[in-house]
Amino acid sequence: MTNTQVTLFQIDNYGPWTVTPEPRREADLQTLQSRLFADISQYVGARDGYVFFTRFDNMIAVTNGLDVTDHELLQESISNRYPVTVSIGVATGRTPIQALSDATTLVQDAGSAQDDGRREILDGRIVDDEFRAPDDVQIAHFDVVDATGEYTDELNAFDSFIEIEQGYAALMRYMRRAHDSLSFFVGGDNVIAVCPDLDRTAYEDAVDHVESAVEVELRVGVGRGETAHEAGMSAKHELEHCRADGRRLSLGWE
Amino acid sequence: MTNTQVTLFQIDNYGPWTVTPEPRREADLQTLQSRLFADISQYVGARDGYVFFTRFDNMIAVTNGLDVTDHELLQESISNRYPVTVSIGVATGRTPIQALSDATTLVQDAGSAQDDGRREILDGRIVDDEFRAPDDVQIAHFDVVDATGEYTDELNAFDSFIEIEQGYAALMRYMRRAHDSLSFFVGGDNVIAVCPDLDRTAYEDAVDHVESAVEVELRVGVGRGETAHEAGMSAKHELEHCRADGRRLSLGWE
Amino acid sequence: MTNTQVTLFQIDNYGPWTVTPEPRREADLQTLQSRLFADISQYVGARDGYVFFTRFDNMIAVTNGLDVTDHELLQESISNRYPVTVSIGVATGRTPIQALSDATTLVQDAGSAQDDGRREILDGRIVDDEFRAPDDVQIAHFDVVDATGEYTDELNAFDSFIEIEQGYAALMRYMRRAHDSLSFFVGGDNVIAVCPDLDRTAYEDAVDHVESAVEVELRVGVGRGETAHEAGMSAKHELEHCRADGRRLSLGWE
Amino acid sequence: MTNTQVTLFQIDNYGPWTVTPEPRREADLQTLQSRLFADISQYVGARDGYVFFTRFDNMIAVTNGLDVTDHELLQESISNRYPVTVSIGVATGRTPIQALSDATTLVQDAGSAQDDGRREILDGRIVDDEFRAPDDVQIAHFDVVDATGEYTDELNAFDSFIEIEQGYAALMRYMRRAHDSLSFFVGGDNVIAVCPDLDRTAYEDAVDHVESAVEVELRVGVGRGETAHEAGMSAKHELEHCRADGRRLSLGWE
After folding, report:
1. What is the ipTM of this complex?
2. What are the tens digits of pLDDT across the range B156-195?
3. Given an 8 Å threshold on Cβ–Cβ distance, is B24 in contact with D80?
4. Which of B46, B73, B74 is closest, CB to CB, to C43?
5. Segments forming the whole domain that contains residue A227
6. Which residues of chain C neighbour A28 with C-beta distances below 8 Å?
7. How far apart are CA A114 and CA A58, in angstroms?
8. The pTM is what?
9. Are both C127 and C9 inside the same structural domain?
């Protein structure tokens, strides 16, 4: 059974900072946001976790394998190198949405995202080493069937993007409501979902739902592991099988 | 009348590169994508343009103020510092979608995004200095009314994200179909749209549409300028007026 | 005749910042310093200038081609993305040392490097476009003859480094005292010097001096141009001639 | 007794890469070198090690606390995100120079730095956890007495730099020859040395030597620890004592 450890990173007082004393250059905000995300991705990724850019001022990560000290060091390093600081909530749960919900509450209870007095909260609980198991994390890696042929090489780049975005919006809502999962667009035509224990049928239903709702054809590879990297790399390999032989679904443990 | 110069950046042969010889670590792909975007944002932004991460392997920019040599140097710099290269199409048009469409065609005509032989295309046309005007670019900066109070401090971080994503998906499609505009989520609860000459009514209709379609309340500041930075900074200031006094729309030229 | 435009970038109040409230992690300071330098290198380099990391809290650049507004934007962008700010002095002169000296004075006159009240000074003069000429900048690119064979593949990495460092220390002092030039180690076994109008003899004497003083054998390519990039790229090509045929000196204009 | 674990990072085939097919823009090389260093600094630093930029194509690190798998992951991550790869040698020794020497030999034995066929060597030995001790690493942090008052606020920025560089060149050679230590300039007026077990007298002699040889007045804080970060942070605190009360030497364990 899954036991997902989820971390929420929230930049402290970001909204006000971006417009004080005057609105800051958009290109610089985009650069700061992206590079902060990239740094967190390197740090968390080196410990076999995954982080998703999400809203950039709020970033969600799967951090099985990182302990509290790991989070503390990351928080300190960010405060040494950026003009902003981050607050962090960590929680675990049988479903990703439960863990994420608890992680959010930890940060919210300490103060508003725009509370000038709230800085560098660090609170939560991790999955202790003794309780970790090979099926703690389940990752599904979706992409669009023949995106290059159907969209990228055919439509203008924004209409391609609309199609992929509509597919993502439909999938994210369905996976959350029907399956307590967290889904993230990760570039290209790829969406990575963090899931509880789901079976073949759940994924088939999700793919069917998106096709009916927005006419976007997805396929998916799914993997399990002790960490997001382990589960996610398995999922990538399963997706390669789909790409190779036309399957729409491939599970790493079957 | 607007005369938007749009650039499409497309990483050459990226899909295959990410899985050859084996799928690469996701955290590294995220880092590479984000830092490439950040570098392009700095380069384009320093010349008063705006670039949007879009799909990361395809990035759309408003580049009024950059000439062909500027694009060429950026392309060369990327090839010196990254393990991938980019192809570039530049075009201009009375509407952003027209310019983006032509820019896309220039790249597509040179070869597929996954054509191993297509590398570092650079093609297109810019707005010559003598033809530039103070209303070449129109930028609308949307955000969600009281996002912090309604979402960030209330819902879990993923449900907040779903709300904002649904709002974005609805807005992007409407603005493209009804108004030939290109809309991009830029973090937080913010969406920046690149528009042709639109009037008050067009923006009011867009805000109403999104509220009806997905129950997300937007407000918007709009600006004009010779460059994206000029138009966008004006839009940011107009949005500050909305934040201050409850208005749902403020135009920089009224 | 050369007319070098030199910019001094000095981080404001850096010493105190690094130890307040407590000494900060060294790895984070190294990261911040290097990335700030990298950003300045991209910005200045894209305008055909060169910047040298020097002491990291003080960085020296050759900025023929950048005007005051260019410096202002760079300063603003840094303040938007880093936890520190920089003060900037720009000056021009017949010799690089004269320009650098005047640039330094502009910053010093505004306040101490550790004066908590001094922030974001921007002062100085540039070479106006109408006065620019193809021989404004002279760059000499030195490297060590057969460094790989003599040092890198033979000695341990620190003893190789000592040899190169001793060679650099001797060259930098000689070029400054005898020839009013500024010399900078740029990695590997390479030193780039910013020079006034020097002839063949001056470079031969410098190479002889270093060989006598510390037994390090240098060779050098020299170029001229309107910008550091133009002069420096010419110097690189001349150095390639030296590498190819055993010459110890090659001038781009002979 | 110290038991320093030293890692040598050497970019594969870098010299040829920088000039193939043509010499690359210097500003881009500087950016790539600095950002690669910054990434290694973050990775190694997060595991409580220290890395020094040294020659940029060859970087030396103190890596007590990192195992072989840690080095392997770093090497893989670099290959995923940069246009170059690195070879790595790791070794341990009673003195830093011995460890560095063995680490270098591991890389040299596998092939020349400019051997096009040598890529991503990873070889060596670490200090196993069971053998680690609180005095494994000794770090000395030197700076120049009143550098700001004597140099930065008084001389032009290059003459300040010459003074500091001459001080560094003298110190690095003395510490290597007399004390088997590795010394690195780390910015500002700071030099960090990695030492074996040295006592008070050794440091007093080093400071005296530099004052006699080049008239640069140094002071030094020294610390011990299981890792470079632990020893180095202790050294920083000792140096703060020197700054506060005028002492020229302060040892963390007395």
Report:
1. 0.97
2. 999 999 999 999 999 999 999 999 999 999 999 999 999 9
3. yes
4. B46
5. 137-251
6. 77, 80-81
7. 12
8. 0.98
9. yes
